[in-house]
Amino acid sequence: MSIPAVPTRRPFVWPIRGLAYGGDYNPEQWAPEVWRDDIRLMREAGVTMITLGVFSWGSIETADGSYDFSALDEVVGLLYEAGIAIDLATPTASPPIWLQQKHPEIVPTSREGVHYSQGGRLGWCPSSPVWREYAMRIVDVIAERYAQHPAVRMWHVSNELGGGNRHCYCDASAAHFRRWLTERHGTIDRLNQAWGTAFWGHRYGSFAEILPPRDSESAPNPALVLDFDRFSSDALLEHFLAERDLIRLHSPEHMITTNFMVAQGPDVVDYARWAPHMDVLANDHYSLAADPQREQELAFSADRMRGLDTGRPWMLMEHSTSAVNWQSVNRSKDPGELVRNSLAHVARGSDSVMFFQWRASTAGAEQFHSAMVPHAGERSKVFREVCELGGILAAIGEVAGSLVEAARVAILVDDEAGWAWRSGEKPHHDLPPSHAAREYHRALFNRGILSDVVPPWTDLSRYDIVIVPALFLVSDADARSVAAAAARGAVVLVTYLSGIVDETNRVRAGGYPGAFRDMLGVFGEEFFTVQDGETVTLRGDGEGISWRANTWSEKVHADESETVAWYETGQLAGSSAITRREVGDGQAWYVSTRLDQDGIDELVGRLLNAAGVHASVPVAPGLEAVRRVADTHSYLFLLNHSAASITVELGGFDLLGGEEHPHSVTIAAGAVRVLRESRRSGEALR
């Protein structure tokens, strides 16, 4: 694999002045007279940047080696004349039909051996040398043509990589996988040991015998599945780097990125390991209609983007103005929700607000996906709010370049740990990998406590609380880092299903929770799943604890720790459920069961008190408060997600209302305030 050991990144140079505002523009779907109307509406809405060219390959290279740039040239010129910056995409997200017809072998093959047909999104295999040849050719042609155009301010490689071609099981992928395994393991004996191939007698005599985990009559080896997930992510990263490096030859001064989808959890690629290769991090986020607390899920996604690189702003590359088209029941956003969602991302570190897409398609697979200009056109709630948002972003443009204030709480999340949990048979098959991270984040969010959602190898020295939520796989080095955080004085909380397997997906023998057992001073001998519809209760003597739990429990011995709560009911009645241990200057807590949200909220309150962590802005129910900090000012975002007005006792200059609030400010129901605050001399940024 041609992935550099030391990633190379450009210095952070924001492509425009202020916050970027706009979205994906697909002019090839429209007649030229519509382009001019689009430019008029973009200027009316305050659009400052457009992502261009994502799906343009078939319109540019109409046949093998035959190019027509006339339409794209004209659109680039129109945007430049209007003063709108371009984030120019390579069009490799969607290969043209002529290419898929000429080389059907580039189209991915499923685990079941089905070779997909033409016409899908991301319909290519990253291991195909034929695909790479054609992809590099179109990237080279486009980069050479537009690299020096003054409208082009940054580059966007492909689109949502892995969001349709995460895995391919074809013969080219199998050969690529074997090369990757040779680099990773070195010898076949080491691979056999790492994978535990003695089970079922599936020992390999050479790397040539290995295939991807294609469909068979029974469950595949979990270690094989995990390594194939790793390989698949690396294969796509290798392709990204090939495009990026080719663009850099033509455009050495511009930032290059691609759009992540971190809200999808471990279902795409390994974003934490991709992040160091990006000049700026970018994310696509779409809320789920069925989620009763969508604003907290949005915050979790944004906190994870910031946690991938706390030293730079990031980009919101896509979200929706209203309903999407791919959920079971698609929900339109309430009045004001478009603005509130957008500013929530900015509050948590994004220096852009971008949408998919500018004008709603009338044909194609996403014809009922909302857009900045909906099917109804200008006379619509959506476009009025798009224009309102453009004015707001211009008014708060000075926020660009500032960073979110330092969080004192870290939540550890790793895509590889999620892949390991989903590989092979498990005691419980209906637990999403990120469920515990989201639940503990929710408790912090509701209290107004900012947290960084970070990979486990992050430097934890700046955090007062470290939460390890169902981190199924963890390395020895990362487990030592968590223990060192506790010894230094942090309050560490580890939940069930953490530290269970090592980096090879092998169970750590000797008792649960594996890698964290010594730090916690506990010994877990057996898992006891709680059946659907059942609950267990917990009781704590002298702690005022009366909590309920579900889904999961464990037979735990508090060998060198204090029992904070016992199981009161269920199969484990009388056994330790939650423990606490003094570790150096800090504490290490173990939670062996899945508390309900009320229990998690109370437990998190105890952790916050133990660590002396409090909200920098006291919040009422429904109020979200996040602060960004610059050299001379800080900016306090106050977002009211409730149906009633809320008054906060603090002061600042309201960038939206243009007035000073010396002592208090009221945020109307569903509204947002952005207050500029003066920073005290010597106040630390992070």
What can be said about this structure in brief?
With 686 residues, the chain is an alpha/beta fold. 30% of the residues lie in helices and 20% in strands.
Characterise the protein shown here:
- The chain has 17 helices and 31 strands.
- By secondary structure, it is of the alpha/beta class.
- The strands form seven sheets. A ten-stranded mixed sheet has the order 14-13-15-16-23-22-21-18-19-24, with helices on both faces. A six-stranded parallel sheet has the order 7-6-5-2-1-11. A six-stranded antiparallel sheet has the order 12-25-26-31-28-29, with helices on one face.
- The chain has three domains: 20-168 and 235-396, Glycosidases (TIM Barrel), CATH 3.20.20.80; 409-611, Class I glutamine amidotransferase (GATase) domain (Rossmann fold), CATH 3.40.50; 623-678, Golgi alpha-mannosidase II (Immunoglobulin-like).
- Helices cover 30% and strands 20% of the residues.
C-alpha termini separation: 36 Å
> The CATH topology of the largest domain, please?
TIM Barrel
Proportion of strand residues: 15-25%
Please state the structural category.
alpha/beta
Number of domains: 3
Mean pLDDT: 96
Figure out the total of helices: 17
Tell how many strands the DSSP assignment holds.
31
Largest sheet: 10 strands, mixed
Biggest sheet: strand arrangement:
14-13-15-16-23-22-21-18-19-24
Large-scale geometry = globular
CATH architecture of the largest domain: Alpha-Beta Barrel
The CATH superfamily title of the largest domain: Glycosidases
- Helical fraction: 25-40%
The Cα radius of gyration reads 26 Å
Low-confidence spans: pLDDT under 50, at least 5 residues? 680-686
What would CATH call the class of the largest domain? Answer: Alpha Beta
